[in-house]
Write a structure and sequence with these properties.
The complex is a heterodimer of chains A (711) and B (553). In chain A, helix 5 crosses helix 6 (89-126). In chain A, the strands form four sheets. Chain A has a seven-stranded mixed beta sheet, sandwiched between helices. Chain A is elongated. The two termini of chain A are 43 Å apart. Chain A is built from 26 helices and 22 strands. Helices cover 64% and strands 3% of the residues of chain B. Chain B has helices spanning 3-34, 40-49, 59-82, 98-109, 119-122, 125-155, 165-190, 218-227, 248-272, 276-302, 307-311, 324-336, 352-363, 374-392, 407-433, 445-460, 475-504, 521-551; strands at 200-204, 210-214, 399-400, 403-404. Chain B has a two-stranded antiparallel ribbon. A two-stranded antiparallel sheet of chain B has the order 3-4. Classes of the chains: A alpha+beta (711), B mainly alpha (553).
Chain lengths: 711, 553
């Protein structure tokens, strides 16, 4: 594979991703074509996929696409007919171009599939036949091939072992290298119990020992499903694709009727139509362009998701993504940066900001949580307080932050400093007989009301125990989110922020980020109820989730994206898995879904609009001899009847190849209202489709007329 | 005043009158089909036929009603004609031959009114009034009923129920067609159309010799003939006959009657689906095509070359001097775009391209504005197809009026649009390729082909007008046109009702900024384009060998 097209393979196969994870930071300002699109087309892929294109000539395969099947039958007929009149160059030329039309269609599909094949190969490497160390009832181990495992088996994995199958850790904790699947080189921790217990077959244990209960049959593991997905083996036609196929089939029947009855009409007019001419006319009229590219469009759509490290378990979900009208977004990690950050220090009466900053920094040195780090950083940046290190202060006794105490601090020079959650610090001060300044409570409430989190800073020294001030911790909304949500609104998509925060905090953040609505103090049940309420109104809902308690909601949502870091229950329940575990990607998934549908519609419109010109080429060519007036329809002034028909057939074949890149890349998509989008696409593909063949056929005709002995 | 200006002024007067009637009639139609109450006379009818008008029907039950009622209609009409010889009040006409009786029965029950007979020489008072005139009312009511069922499919959600066929049939007849037709008949009588039960008169001619005139309940039949987009004339000359259409005013009035219900149904549609704008969009599509066709036909007929034709102000052959080129073009387009099939001039005598325009009008599927009911449902099917293609281009799976267009819906719509092209093309091909049928053609060459193509286009689309020239009273034509009319009417209805059932069962999708706006001019333009391109592509080769070959020569 070449460097340009191989970007996704790189990320999938090697331990070091060569590509920055897409959407790690919302790319609100990047050009639209960067967001969806990508995957430039390399002409050499066509050559490489040629053998596959020939293999697809099997009628049993072709019959799945009614339009191209008709072309195949037509090719066979004209070729057979040409044998009866071997001296006729026209028959052979038409036959050749009809075969090319079929081959081009197969090529489009083969190229689309080819992009997944390389990926599948690297995945297969990860799936090497592993040996499983199965625990037998008496506690001893036996070594069996990984393919021999059944659900419920317990297997042991130690450092260096490849995990033989999907399962849950039931004993122990280990660091696991999941780069084979996610492309992310940093190891992850997997441990028994909780939301981090799922392991995937094919990943590698780097340290320690774990016991895994196998939850999936060999051959149906996550990696197997991934291989099937990227290869397109598991590809089923999606509902909209089926519907479009029906419409195309019916148009094919209409044109079949028009062509089948034509010999009778022509015979009455005193003209004889050969089989070759009739088949040529038929192939030009039936919607071959979209018929040829339809399945490639579908495969490429799935592939675009894979390139973004998203696995869609069904094509149906990708289509549904285009229809989504409500997005449920988790606040943390999606709308805001994962952690709150210190934004200001507010002193109580009688102290100064600098005092608070100093005490806050000292007391936070022993707090390794991101919030704690941000206090140290703010003190340094805003108040010029050099960051001191724990070793610098002699005789200091550090109090680490724990989830139980919810405080951190330091005891130095008979001074005790503490910083932490309001309740804990107040209790600490009272315990020591100190007082809590009445304005401390007021400040804390003001911060809460503004959507922040107050942390109290207190000291116990010669002056007694007292609260010095308040640290304002703030949720930081990711850059560019407001623009992103505005775009979504223009696309008709409502965003709902989901958060465990209280309504006050939630409201403040929701306003800052610009989401349409929020769900505060959300429990899994609330989420579920919200989804059902939206769906009852006929809306399609998309959400992300990772925990086991998200599973019911993921299953209920029309598009449920499970994070790869999540539990296997969540991954089972969702219909997509994001290997990067980046919830912001939901927005891109919606765009890819829309782009897939737009590409289909655009090429269908183009295909139908093309027919007008072809009639103007072929009808005068066929009948001007008997009805000279019909030559007035030859507005392209094509050089001869044979050349006119051949030019139409050649154009019809070449346009397929010309549009393969578009089918694979997808129509350029920018978020805009439906009206503007329709106007734009109708202009390009409707009007363009009407005009392009007039130009194209004329050019081909000129070229053909230059060939000596023809025309 | 020149003939062109006269034509344009008539067109404007017509549009003005239709615009005045649009809202009140549309609202009235919506009320009729939504009301819970029954009139006393309706209750008597329900008791008489043993129907309960308050039971809701699923699409299959609704379809059974349509088919059973229509089958009974065909049988009754067939027997009536076969027994005419022994019935009183038949002016001495004998019974109709089986093939022609079948053809005529099929013709009037399907709202086609194709006539392979000359009315004044074959049908007596009883068949005309008790048979043909009755079907003029009820076949129109059936068409509206099916359209209303489809509209309910869009308007309702999460139910499979489409209303009650018997109630829709009876209401359409009693509350809409009969009262409006009665008023219209009075107007026509006042303007000189005849209304009597007199016998045959022998009348001397100016140039010597004599001819026979018979009387009849002409004005009443004329009113429903136009109002119900039927088109079967009392006389062979149809609306060119002075007893049917005496003056330029009645001519314009008849065109008004032809168009008024099909157009107003778009308003009823808008009201019933809860968005009159959606109705306007459909109306705009219909009117755009209709005005475009009128302009084209006026152009071909006024601009005809040749000194004699130029001297007379256009192609006057086959047109009444009472009406002139403009009014004839207006009538010709209105009758072929509505499945009416009444004529006040002879389409065969139009210029080659002009004849082609009347044919293309029918080929569009009678949807601009189409037959009563059938025009609306045909147009909605095309809207579904257009939405399906265009809807994808806005990045959503297609939906129309909040209903998803999935594979079941598109399958039914696709089947619908396959039926008439199949009938037209196959029957036409057989009629020119088989040894005997071509004997019916009056002309040879492209014009002869047009005669045949026109006949099957007219029959399959339930129009009923004839190109003239073709002798359709043969076993072949009586049988094939009869079949084309029955299949062209009822097979699409099966798909329409199945579609209605499928839509009614859906949960509606709320519109957002990402939804395709089907009430906007852009969509109307798209729909017009889709209709012209899809139909044009289907029939282009056939049209090329008939009217185009003749018109471009």
């Amino acid at each position: 594979m070449t460097t340009r097209t191989g970007n996704h393979e790189d990320s999938m196969s090697t331990a070091t991703p060569t590509r920055a994870p897409h959407g790690g930071v919302p790319s609100g300002h990047t050009p639209a074509e960067d967001r969806v699109g990508a995957g430039l087309f390399d002409p050499r892929q066509l050559l490489r996929s040629l053998p596959d294109a020939f293999r697809k000539l099997d009628p049993r395969v072709m019959v799945k696409s009614p339009v191209m099947f008709v072309v195949l039958v037509g090719s066979v007929l004209t070729t057979a007919f040409s044998f009866t009149d071997p001296g006729d160059w026209f028959g052979w030329a038409i036959s050749a171009w009809l075969w090319l039309t079929v081959i081009f269609a197969n090529l489009a599909e083969a190229v689309a599939e080819g992009r997944g094949k390389a990926q599948a190969d690297t995945l297969r490497k990860a799936k090497t036949d592993t040996v499983a160390r199965r625990l037998v009832r008496d506690g001893s181990e036996e070594r069996i091939p990984g393919t021999g495992l059944t659900i419920g088996d317990l297997v042991v994995c130690e450092a260096g072992d490849v995990i033989p199958g999907d399962g849950d850790v039931v004993e122990g904790v280990a660091s696991v290298d999941e780069s084979a699947i996610t492309g992310e080189s940093a190891p992850v921790i997997r441990e028994s119990g909780g939301d981090r217990s799922a392991v995937t077959g094919g990943t590698k244990v780097l340290s320690d020992r774990i016991v895994i209960r196998i939850t999936t049959k060999p051959g149906e593991t996550f990696i197997d499903r991934m291989i099937n997905l990227v290869e397109g083996a598991a590809r089923q036609k999606t509902p909209n694709e089926i519907a479009l196929n029906i419409l195309l089939a019916s148009l094919t029947i209409v044109f079949l009727l028009a062509c089948a009855t034509l010999p009778a009409f022509a015979g009455y007019a005193g003209s004889h139509l050969t089989m070759v001419v009739l088949v040529a006319l038929l192939v030009c009229l039936i919607p071959t362009t979209i018929g040829a590219l339809l399945s490639a469009i579908g495969i490429a759509g799935m592939d675009r998701l894979v390139q973004r490290n998203v696995l869609a378990m069904s094509g149906r979900a990708v289509e549904a993504a285009g229809d989504v009208s409500t997005l449920l977004l988790d606040k943390t990690g999606t709308i805001t940066l994962g952690n709150r950050q210190a934004a200001e220090f507010v002193p109580v009466r009688g102290t100064t900001e600098a005092e608070v900053a100093d005490a806050a920094q000292l007391s936070s040195l022993a707090d390794e949580t991101p919030e704690g780090r941000s206090v140290v950083v703010l003190a340094k940046e805003a108040y010029g307080l050099r960051e001191r290190h724990q070793g610098e202060l002699v005789g200091a006794e550090w109090v680490e932050f724990t989830a139980q105490t919810r405080m951190s601090g330091v005891d130095v020079d008979k001074r005790k400093i503490r910083k932490g959650a309001a309740g804990s610090v107040v209790a600490w001060v009272r315990e020591r007989g100190g007082t809590v300044a009445e304005d401390a409570d007021r400040i804390a409430q003001r911060i809460s009301a503004a959507g922040g989190t107050p942390l109290l800073v207190a000291v116990d020294d010669a002056d007694g125990a007292r609260v010095l001030g308040v640290i304002h911790l703030k949720d930081v909304v990711k850059e560019g989110m407001r623009e992103r949500f505005d775009e979504l609104r223009r696309m008709g998509i409502k965003t709902v922020m989901i958060t465990g925060d209280n309504p006050l905090t939630a409201k403040a953040i929701a306003e800052e980020a610009g989401v349409d609505d929020f769900l505060a103090e959300a429990t899994p049940e609330d989420k579920m109820a919200l989804i059902k309420r939206e769906q009852a109104g006929g809306k399609l809902v998309a959400m992300t989730g990772d925990g086991t308690n998200d599973a019911p909601a993921l299953a209920q949502a029309d598009v449920g994206v499970a994070m790869n870091t999540g539990t296997s229950a969540a991954k089972e329940a969702g219909n997509m898995v994001d290997l990067d575990s980046n919830p912001t990607k939901l927005i891109e998934i919606v765009e890819i879904g829309k782009q897939l549908l737009i590409t289909r519609g655009a090429l269908t419109t183009f295909s139908i609009a093309n027919d007008v010109a072809k009639y103007f080429a072929i009808i005068p060519a066929l009948f001007a001899a008997v009805y000279p007036g019909l030559d007035k329809l030859n507005i392209m002034q094509l050089s001869s009847p044979d050349s006119a028909i051949l030019s139409a057939v050649v154009f019809n074949a070449l346009i397929i190849i010309a549009l393969v890149p578009l089918a694979l890349r997808g129509v350029r998509y920018r978020p805009m209202s439906a009206d503007r989008m329709l106007r734009r696409n109708l202009g390009i593909y409707g009007l363009g489709g009407l005009i392009a063949p007039f130009v194209g056929i004329k050019i081909i005709d000129i070229l053909i007329s230059l060939i000596p002995g023809i025309g | 005043m020149g003939p062109v200006l006269a034509g344009v002024l008539q067109l404007l007067a017509l549009i003005g009158a239709l615009a005045l009637a649009y809202v009140p009639l549309g609202n009235y139609l919506a009320r009729v089909y939504s009301s819970e109450k029954h009139l006393r006379v309706e209750k008597w009818i329900y008791q008489g036929i043993g129907a309960n008008p308050d039971t809701e029907m699923r699409w299959t039950a609704y379809l059974r009603g349509v088919l059973a009622f229509s089958a009974a209609g065909v049988l009754f009409l067939y027997l009536l004609q076969r027994l005419q010889g022994s019935l009183p009040g038949s002016l001495g006409f004998s019974s109709i031959e089986p093939a022609q009786a079948f053809d005529t029965a099929a013709s009037f029950v399907t709202n086609t009114n194709w006539q392979s007979y000359a009315g004044e020489q074959a049908m007596g008072h009883v068949v005309q009034t008790a048979g043909l005139a009755v079907q003029n009312f009820v076949s129109a009511a059936v068409g509206i009923a099916v359209a209303v069922a489809l509209v309910r499919g869009f308007a309702r959600s999460r139910t499979g129920e489409l209303g009650n066929f018997w109630a829709d049939l009876v209401r359409g007849t009693v509350r809409v067609l009969v009262p409006v037709a009665a008023v219209a008949a009075v107007v026509l009588v006042a303007c000189g159309a005849i209304q009597n039960f007199s016998g045959i008169h022998e009348v001397g001619q100016f140039m010597g010799g004599s001819q026979q005139w018979n009387g009849g309940a002409v004005a009443s039949q004329e009113a429903i003939k136009e109002l119900g987009t039927n088109g079967g004339g009392y006389f062979n000359a149809n609306s060119a006959h002075p007893f049917e259409n005496p003056t330029p005013f009645t001519n314009l009035f008849e065109i008004f009657l032809i168009l008024v219900i099909p157009l107003a149904l778009t308003r009823a549609f808008g009201v019933m689906v809860g968005s009159v704008k959606q109705g306007y969009a459909i109306l705009a599509t219909m009117v755009t095509i209709w005005v475009g066709f009128v302009a084209l036909l006026m152009w071909t007929e006024f601009a005809h070359h040749g000194p004699a034709l130029q001297a007379s102000g256009g192609a006057m052959e086959g047109k009444e001097t009472r009406f002139g080129v403009g009014a004839s073009a207006l009538f010709g387009v209105s009758t072929t775009l509505t499945s009416t099939g009444a004529v006040d001039s002879f389409h065969s005598s139009f210029t080659g391209l002009g004849g082609g325009i009347t044919m293309l009008g029918m080929m569009l599927g009678e949807i601009a504005p189409g037959g009563v009911g059938s025009g609306l449902y045909g147009m909605l099917i095309m809207a579904i197809i257009a939405v399906f293609i265009a809807g994808l281009m806005v990045g959503r799976t297609p939906e129309y009026l909040g209903k998803k267009i999935g594979s079941r819906e598109i399958k039914l719509a696709a089947c619908y649009i396959l039926v008439t092209p199949a009938l037209v093309l196959i029957f036409t091909a057989a009629s020119v390729a088989l040894p005997t049928p071509p004997n019916s053609m009056l002309n040879s060459g492209a014009h002869g082909f047009s005669e045949v193509l026109y006949a099957f286009t007219s029959a399959s689309n339930n129009n009923g007008s004839a190109f003239a020239g073709l002798n359709a009273n043969t076993d072949w034509y009586n049988t094939t046109t009869g079949l084309a009319m029955l299949l062209g009417r009822f097979v699409p209805m099966v798909f329409v009702l199945a579609l209605a059932g499928s839509l009614a069962g859906q949960r509606p999708v709320p519109a957002t900024a990402g939804t395709l706006r089907t009430e906007k001019p852009l969509f109307t333009g798209l729909l017009v384009g889709a209709i012209l391109i899809i139909t044009g592509l289907t029939y282009f080769p056939a049209l090329a060998l008939g009217p185009l070959a003749e018109g471009l020569a």
